Amino acid sequence: MLCNAECLFVGGFDEADMLAFKNTRERLRDETTFKDYSVCSSTASCEAMASTRPLLLLVLCSLTLTDAQFRLFNLRASDLSANLLGTTDAYVKVFCGSSNLGETSVSRNEKNPWWEEEFTTYKGQENDVMKLEVHDSDILLDDQLGVCQRQLKLGTHTHDCFLKKGGTLHYTYTLG
């Protein structure tokens, strides 16, 4: 009888990713590269498969890990429109699929900001929509300068997005 198994690449997942993979299973064995969590109808059926366990886990991992690593980097903008005071304090909010990945720092008084932050998640999938919202930070209410949306494809891609209120957002992402 086949065991219900799942695996985690050591050091490859953050806490949220581990919680997504873990159900309520007992730990039976630790392999060098994988942690195997299994529940079987009988302990004997799992022990009989012990010699093929590493190969089985590799196959199961390749079948169950449909999500890919998504990384957004090299975020910068050019020719952003100024507010009434003549300055722009821009930042970017980053979304991938249904996940809010966070936001960049505010780049003060900069018409052509370059943000050093990188955003990464293991929950990205091909055809997910990435959304980048560019905002101008103000004292009372932040103005939205524009929104960029793109359907994700495997590989590394560099894009430019023209913002509704003027300026261009430049970025690079990798999915895979």
UniProtKB/TrEMBL annotation:
SUPFAM superfamilies assigned: C2 domain (Calcium/lipid-binding domain, CaLB) (SSF49562)
Annotated PANTHER family: PERFORIN 1.5, PERFORIN-1
Gene Ontology molecular-function annotations: wide pore channel activity
Organism: Gasterosteus aculeatus aculeatus
Any Gene Ontology CC annotation: membrane
Protein name, per record: C2 domain-containing protein
Family annotation (InterPro entries): C2_dom, C2_domain_sf, Perforin-1_pore-forming
Tree of life domain: Eukaryota
